[in-house]
Amino acid sequence: MAEDKKFTKIQELTYELKIKDVMTKKVVTVHPKKPISELREILYKKGISGTPVVSKGELVGLISIEDFIKCLAQGEMNALIEEKMAKKVETLYADEPVVHAVRKFDQYGFGRFPVIKRNNKKLVGIITKGDIIKGLLKKLEIDYHEEEIHRYRASHIFEDIIADNTTLTFQYNVVGKDFDKAGESASGLKRTLYRLGIQPNIVRRASIATYEAEMNIVVFTDGGKLTASVQPHQIKIDASDSGPGIPDVKQAMRPGFSTAPEWIRELGFGAGMGLLNIKNCTDKMTLDSKVGKGTHLEAVLYLN
Amino acid sequence: MTLNQAKEILEAKVITGLDNLETEVKIGCASDLMSDVLIFNKPESLLLTGLTNPQVVRTAEMADIKAICFVRGKTLDEKTIELAKDKNIILLMTHLPMFESCGRLYKKGLVGLGYLDINKKNG
């Protein structure tokens, strides 16, 4: 059901990130044959409350500050770690998604889980709730930076190109009658223009115009092409198809005039505002159409 | 008005964008005609609609509409939800009908665009 679909970006990342991406790799470990008394130094110096017990790289147990305190109270400081450690240890695999760790923390209420390799059970790290939080924050920051870098690189392209005339051309193929895909071209162009560093209100007007033109191609024709030519001073959008053509262009431009079929109207389109909207969103628009040959729409937006 | 406030006023459920409910919306817009939404809309607005197909999200994406509230408790298309997640558009759903939704929001200070000339340049 729709209402159960509350899925946040953080939740998404807990599926995307693996435990090995967020765990602490440098783990303080102790050998099972050491006496309990040596724990004091290790736990105190490293500021930790528990540590995995490892023999020949393999995890054999877990010993915590609680175990140490118990031994202290009972005067068993010379006992070996292997006698006092927890031998049945809950672990996580390095290649599991972080969401498994989140569930395990909830389920057991422990402060940490050792992380082992799936094939040979070797200890490769340790994970705490703090590691998960740090890992998620880092990933969010990286994603944010990547988008910034894309935008930065692209927005300097005109400065970096040396030529008397520069035109960047982006071409999109529009599939006719495919309502599900309708808008993908306009969406792609919008993102591209945004990355080129073009002013948001111009990007918005160009996107709306392109989307309307794309809808017209989807609704009325068997397909066509959208081309955006970006120059330092303007964006030109061309929409062309070889579809049925418009018998009376002047009439088609009139607000509210529409020949859209009923199924399109039910979907919220075909109100007879599309062409007028393209005209209103752009600085110059021309429309050529021949019945049986196709339609060519050209719209220009000036930059600055 | 924040989306959190709008959500309270409309007794709405959050479908996507739970992390972004502090987003501010300045203008309300209600229509089942997407072409009208594209003509009349201004950015930073909340769209109320009874239509639930993915093109509603596309329309919002193109017009920089931050959030959509579906009225009359309609069941949403999976594709609509997927697209909204992908495009970071916040989706709410209320069981209230359209007129009631608009009235409640207007009363609490979310305004519309006022008089609009459809022949005027958008910009």
**CATH architecture level-2 label of the largest domain in chain A:** 2-Layer Sandwich
Which fold name is given in CATH as the topology of chain B? Udp-n-acetylmuramoylalanyl-d-glutamate--2,6- Diaminopimelate Ligase, Chain: A, domain 1
> Numbering strands along the chain, what is their spatial order in the largest sheet of chain A?
6-7-8-10-9
Q: Which structural class matches the secondary elements of chain A?
A: alpha+beta
Provide the low-confidence segments of chain A as ranges: 1-6
Oligomeric form: heterodimer
Which descriptor suits the 3D outline of chain B? globular
C-alpha-based Rg of chain A, rounded: 32 Å
**Could you give the order of strands across the largest sheet of chain B?**
1-5-4-3-2
How does this structure look, described?
- The longest helix of chain A is centred in the middle third of the chain and has 27 residues.
- Chain A has a five-stranded antiparallel β-sheet, with helices on one face. In chain A, strands 3-4-5 form a three-stranded mixed β-sheet. In chain A, strands 1-2 form a two-stranded antiparallel ribbon.
- Chain A contains 13 helices and ten strands.
- Chain A has two domains: about 130 residues, CBS-domain; about 140 residues, Histidine kinase-like ATPase, C-terminal domain (Heat Shock Protein 90, 2-Layer Sandwich).
- Chain A has about 300 residues and is α+β, with helices and mostly antiparallel strands.
- Helix content of chain B is about 35%, strand content about 15%.
- Chain B is built from five helices and five strands, in the order αββαβαβαβα.
- Chain B has a five-stranded mixed β-sheet with strand order 1-5-4-3-2, with helices on both faces.
- In chain B, helix 2 runs parallel beside helix 3 and helix 3 runs parallel beside helix 4.
- Chain B has a single domain, classed as Udp-n-acetylmuramoylalanyl-d-glutamate--2,6- Diaminopimelate Ligase, Chain: A, domain 1.
- In chain B, strand 3, helix 3 and strand 4 form a beta-alpha-beta unit.
- At the A-B interface, helix 9, helix 10 and helix 13 of A face strand 1, helix 2, helix 3 and helix 4 of B.
